[in-house]
Each structure stands twice: as C-alpha cells, then as structure tokens.
Amino acid sequence: MLRKFLRDRRGDYMIATAIAIVPIMGGLALAIDYAEITRQRATTLNALDAAGIATARRIVEGADEDEAKRYALAFFKANMPDADTSKTKFNVILPASKQGGGLLTIEAEHPYEPYFLSAFGNLLGAEIGEINFAAKTQVRLKNTLEVALVLDNSGSMDYKGSGSGKKRISLLKDAAKQLVKKLADEAEQMKQVAKPVQFGLVPFAASVNVGPGNAGADWMDTEGRSPIHHENFDWSTMPNDKKVVPAGGVYVKSGDGWQDEDGAVVTRFTLLDEMQRITGSTWESNWEYVCTRYRRGRCKRYGWVDNGEYTYTYGSYANWQGCVEARPYPYNTNDAAPNKSTPATLFVPMFAPDETDLTYGGRASNSYWSDATSGNSAYRQGFMWKYFTPSSSSSAAGNGEGPNYSCTTKPITPLVDVTTTAGLDEINDAIDDMSPNGGTNVPEGLAWGWRVVSGAAPFSEGRPDSENGNDKVVIVLTDGENTYYTPGSLGHSDDADNKSIYSAYGYTAKSQPGASFTRLFMGTGTGINKSGYYNDNYTAAMNDHMQQLCDNAKSEGLILMTVSLDLSESKSGERDAIQALKECASESRFRKDPDNPSKAAKLYWNATGGNLAEKFEEIADELSNLRIVG
Prior knowledge:
Layout: H1 2-7, H2 11-60, H3 65-78, E1 89-93, E2 103-112, H4 117-123, E3 131-140, E4 144-152, H5 168-187, E5 197-204, E6 208-209, E7 243-247, E8 250-254, H6 268-274, E9 276-284, E10 287-295, E11 298-306, E12 309-316, E13 323-324, H7 377-382, E14 413-417, H8 421-432, H9 442-453, E15 470-478, H10 535-555, E16 559-565, H11 572-584, E17 587-593, E18 596-602, E19 604-607, H12 612-628
Parallel strand pairs: 4-5, 4-15, 15-16, 16-19
Antiparallel strand pairs: 1-2, 2-3, 5-14, 6-13, 7-8, 9-12, 10-11, 17-18
Helix pairs in contact: 2-3, 5-8, 5-12, 9-10, 10-11
C-alpha cells in the first residue's frame, strides 16, 4: 500500500494530503503545547506545595499575616526559575485562627503562551491567545495540645463523692487518667509531629509545691531580695556581736561573733540550714583528783571526780519541701517572667515562723521551736536568735510541719509527652501519688497551671507562646470554695495578732514595706473590706484575685476549663464558688449554650462523685475537637 502511494502521481493524493496536513499539524501542535502546559502546571503545583509547607512552618513560628504572604510568594517564585511569574495571580488564604491548627490555602493562576496553537488557530481563522490554568495547595497546620491538670488536693477531697461509694480523690484519679489516656491514644496517630499532646500536673491545696529540686533555680529568690522575703523576720532581735543587717538589697551577717561568716547573705534557705537539732550526745570524761570535803577552810578528804561534759552531734531539723508563697500583686495574677531586676517577680520559698510558746487562751497554730526569750507573743514569734540555737528535740519536722507548715501537696509535674510510654507512666504515677490534706487556694493552683504550659520560666517545657497551631489548656477542678483561716476558726489562739494562720499569702496582718494593705487585699476591688480580718472576707479577696488571673490568662490565649465537684447552688458559699468557676471558664469553639444558642457554651462542668468520669469524658471530647478543627 505504501509503495503504491509513493509511485502514484495523480492529483487526488496531493489534495488528500493537503487536506490531511491541517489536522495532522494541529494534532502535533496540540500535543506539543499540551505536554508543555502539563509540565508547567506540574512545576506550579510543586512550587505551591513547597511554598505551602515552608509558609506553614513560618506561621507556626509566629509570622504575622503580611510576613507570611510575602514569604509564600517569594518561596513560590524561587521554585519557578524557568517561568515568567510576572503575570501570575497569586493568593494566600491564612488560617482563620492562630490557635488550634487551621488550614493554609495557596492558589495560583498562571498564564501559558502556546508555541504552535496560536498559528494553528490563525489557519482556521480563530484567535488563540494565553491559556490560564489554576492550581491550589492546602496545608493543615500542626495541631498540638499542652494541658495542665490543676487538681484540688485539699482535705475535703478525702470525703466520699456524692452518688458513689468512693472517695473524691480516688474518683478524680480515675477520671484524670482516663482523660490522659484518651488524648494519648488519639495523639499516637500524629507520627509526623513531635510531642503532639503533653500533660502536666499541678496538685494544689493551701499552697503549691514547685519541687525542692528547684531551690537553686534562677527564678527562685535565692538572695532574699523580694519585698516579701523578710516580712515575718525581726532581725533587730539578734545579739550585738551577731547582727543581721540590710546591705545592697539583701540581708547579711554582721559582727565579730560571726567570724568567717561575716558578710554572708541570710535568706529563708540559709535559715533552714541554721536550724539544727541534737541527734546524739557523748559524755567526755575529765577525771581530776580534787578535794571532796572541806572543814574550817582545810581539805579533809581528796578523791577522783569526773568533771567531763557532754559533746553533741547535730542534724538538720527541716529541709525546704518545695512550696512557695504567692507573689505580691500584680504578679500573683499574671505570668510575668521572674527577673532579679524586679525582685517582686521572683518566687519566695515558704517559711512558716515558729509561733509563741505561750498558751494564753490556747495554743498557737504552729509552735515548733523554743522561743528562747521572754516578752509578749508577738516579740517571741519575731525573735530570730532562737533559730540559731539547736533544738533539744531529737525529732526532725515531718511533711507539712514546722517551717513547712501549710505545704501539704506533692510537687508539680512539668509537661511530658504522653504519646511515649515513659511520659504516660510519669503523669499517671504523679496522679496516683496525689494525697488530700490542707486548705483550698484555687488562684495559686491556676497561676501555676498557667506557668506549667507557658513557654517561659519557671517551667519552660511548653512550646513558645508565639507558636501557632498549638493550644495551651488549663483544667481546674475543686470541691470547695477558696479558704484562708483565722486561728480562732481552727481552734487556735492568736496572741501574736497574726489575723490568720500562715499560708501562701503569709499572715493577713503582715504587709510588705510601703504597702497600704496586706498582701491578700492588694489589688482587690471596692467590694472587698481591706480591713476585714475574717474568713468570708478572705474568701472574697481570693475570688477577686482569681477572676483577675482568669481574665489575664484568657487574654493571653489560654483555654481555661473549670470543674466543680459536689458543690450545690443552694449553699451561698458554694454558689459563689460555682459562679467564680463559671466566670473563669473560656468559651467553647464548637458548642453552643443549650439555654442560649446565640452564645458559645462555657467550658464549665458541675460534677458529682457519681458522674465525674462522664464529665471528664466530655472534657476529653472538647480537647479532641481542638486537635481536629482549626
């Protein structure tokens, strides 16, 4: 057939060929241009994907909207080296929220000028110009969670939960571990993200324990510079040859009696070291042949007499157990970084003073050391030389006793990655180790929950606060209202006029130098009686600080979830506690208020012992949604 065609000289073959050449060349032109447009579109998609991944990383690092868009365009162009992008229409759609992940979309409409199709179109009388094709890429930002469990360990948590046969603390342990496990199981699917879900634990009662291992941390007041560090110490009571005096913002030893220690800094830490107890004694004999009987000025009998003496061995009476006082206002209501240039931002170790030995009207709440002086109860309490005289007791102070009075909780567990076996075991062991004892100080627990998830000191295991795609969550549970007690309400005398027992705010009768009000009343609103030294007023002041703290935390992007356990609206004090927890809570991103569908639901749960596990399951669902929805 082919040979016949080649030998044929008739005109109809030429006509047929001329007719056929148009579609043949058109098909060839279409094939070439199609291949090229396909190649350029693939290049554009690859450039968009690269720009999307790179820009997502920059957004996570904290880039603002304009910076992210400029970065995306520059990265796109850098990956289109052989293409003219001057006419490319480029669009970046950033995630709607900086929290909780979100979807980044980058679109490009790129023009293509055909090689042959334009000429082919002219043959057919048609004008074929630029061909625009669109491409799009989407990248979901990583969605990670950092959660601090702030759990009530006060004495009432040892009561049985309503609607159950178990103690509240046991119910809480079970519910908390189930919550952690559910989030840990879900997070195991996010293999591409490091530490997708982290949990920390803040057990709280009357105070919070940051861990005795942090005694030397640079965020602790290791030099005694904070305005509250010496507020309970009367250093004027020291002897003349062993004084303690202010010098350069600290207190130092001064006097010949100190010998080599002259000039050494004195703090609550060093005072604990000074407090010694007698742990043993040994009689050192010193036999002497002396007159044992005189008569009319003359010795009538000689004998051997042991004029020896006891030598003593000493041991430490108490070590710092890890609890700290509340910072003075406003630093008790915010996450200001500890800084030596602002001493009030540093954290002061708790040191409960030894109170009077006198028992007029009953015993003081915390008398554990010999007063070693006379005078009234206030003077005895402030008398400092007693701490430098060894105790005759051979027993050391137990947990929550002596200088560590009101320090009853286990230490904070910083954030750990619960997708690892080690991390999950660590947080579960810490939950199991909780033990109920002491009062209730929700604001201090909440403040330390914030510090646990914060990206800065004191605990810096959290991601940077500027990092996007990461939610920082604090879950607070309490079974009672905030408490601070007068001595009389607990059956103790207050002959030293402290107005309260010692706890995280110190004594309510004591104030830092230059302050108008005691620390508990500093910064509170007009509704608080700043000279009202009674329990209900103390609770109101703590609620006031708590609301300020909650507002500050939410304004910084924290998600606050609150839970009341076995509290009743029918009791006025518990009703106030419920209201405070409701006001503290953040609003849900996903659920509407069933009573008012136009508003978001509050992240607050009122639980009983019987349904606590169910409420924690609802919290787990809320946290799961945070990881899925942007």
